[in-house]
């Protein structure tokens, strides 16, 4: 009896041992797969221009404006960011620009985790981005030409090395005749084009533009869109926030759609 039981116990034991060795093999395999997946996701994060993982943002004690955002912007990609007014497009842009910190989640920009980044490193990352703000942010005491040339001056370049480049870009955006006037005398559309030229002049690795065609007529909007596409062809990743369906319909590009705090992606 005993031996039989013992035998059964042994068998059970062997059975358990077998199961446990199988499950430890499976566990190792799945740990290996998880490790490989982690490595692959770290590599993807490293390669992305922007990577968000479960990012949430609330202003003060208010409700979460953005919830569980997980997405990447790849090098050399072109995408629109859209959604109803108040959906959080500007907020998302400000997170990418590192002008806001997320309330939760993880953000990396140009492969760098930005949660504990120094002020100096942050300035270095921002210099790699061109930004067109909704309110233009031109300096009123500088001429249109000087506003557009400013990022190059900040880089320490001599005027002789960039003058013709700035003039050519200003002509391209239709401001050839408005180069020497101050922003307060420019129309809304002219200010917008000056702001776009200032963002493009440094050939940024990433361009972020918040409603960049909001103040121009459809013809000029198409021309500006061509400029963004050309910049993208030269390798810049482009993210354009817009409500303008007609503008989006002109390009077969990825759409990031914000609604009720969530992001839906249409490739
Ligand atoms: N500084 C702030 N403090 C508190 N709430 C804010 C602040 N900035 C934005 N919000 C709120 O966050 C939400 C998202 O605003 P955001 O400006 O990002 O939306 P949007 O999609 O860019 O809107 P629009 O298309 O009208 O420009 C809105 O409810 C807005 O009221």
From TrEMBL:
InterPro entries: AAA+_ATPase, ABC_transporter-like_ATP-bd, ABC_transporter-like_CS, ABC_transpr_LolD-like, Cell_div_FtsE, MacB-like_ATP-bd, P-loop_NTPase. Residues 50-265 form the ABC transporter domain. It is found in: Cell inner membrane; Cell membrane. Keywords: ATP-binding, Cell cycle, Cell division, Cell membrane, Membrane, Nucleotide-binding, Transport. GO terms for biological process: cell division. The keyword Cell membrane applies. It is a peripheral membrane protein. GO terms for molecular function: ATP binding; ATP hydrolysis activity; transmembrane transporter activity. Residues 1-33 are annotated as: Disordered. Gene3D superfamilies: P-loop containing nucleotide triphosphate hydrolases. The keyword Phosphoprotein does not apply. One of its GO terms (cellular component) is plasma membrane. Residues 20-33 have a biased composition (Low complexity). It comes from the Bacteria. Residues 7-17 have a biased composition (Basic and acidic residues). PANTHER family: CELL DIVISION ATP-BINDING PROTEIN FTSE (PTHR24220:SF470), IMPORT ATP-BINDING PROTEIN (PTHR24220). Part of the ABC transporter FtsEX involved in cellular division. Important for assembly or stability of the septal ring. Belongs to the ABC transporter superfamily. Homodimer. Forms a membrane-associated complex with FtsX. This is Cell division ATP-binding protein FtsE. It comes from Camelimonas lactis. The lineage of its organism: Bacteria, Pseudomonadati, Pseudomonadota, Alphaproteobacteria, Hyphomicrobiales.
């Amino acid at each position: 009896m005993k031996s039989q039981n013992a035998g059964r116990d042994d068998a059970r034991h062997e059975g358990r041992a077998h199961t446990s060795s199988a499950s430890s093999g499976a566990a190792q395999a799945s740990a290996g797969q998880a490790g490989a997946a982690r490595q692959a996701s770290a590599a993807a994060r490293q390669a992305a221009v922007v990577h968000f993982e479960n990012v949430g943002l609330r202003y003060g004690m208010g409700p979460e404006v953005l919830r569980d955002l997980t997405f990447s912007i790849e090098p050399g990609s072109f995408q629109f960011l859209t959604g109803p007014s108040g959906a959080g497009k500007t907020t998302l842009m400000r997170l990418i620009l590192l002008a806001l910190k997320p309330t939760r989640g993880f953000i990396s920009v140009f492969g760098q985790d930005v949660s504990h980044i120094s002020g100096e490193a942050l300035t270095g990352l921002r210099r790699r981005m061109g930004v067109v703000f909704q309110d233009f942010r031109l300096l009123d005491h500088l001429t249109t030409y000087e506003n557009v040339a400013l990022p190059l001056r900040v880089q320490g370049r001599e005027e002789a090395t960039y003058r013709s480049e700035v003039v050519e870009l200003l002509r391209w955006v239709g401001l050839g005749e408005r180069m020497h006037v101050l922003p307060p005398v420019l129309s809304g559309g002219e200010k917008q084009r000056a702001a776009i030229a200032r963002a493009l002049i440094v050939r940024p690795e990433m361009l972020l533009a918040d409603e960049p065609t909001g103040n121009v007529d459809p013809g000029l909007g198409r021309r500006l869109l061509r400029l963004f596409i050309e910049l993208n062809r030269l390798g810049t990743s482009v993210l354009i926030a817009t409500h303008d369906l007609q503008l989006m319909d002109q390009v077969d590009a990825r759409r990031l759609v914000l609604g009720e705090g969530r992001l839906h992606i249409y490739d």
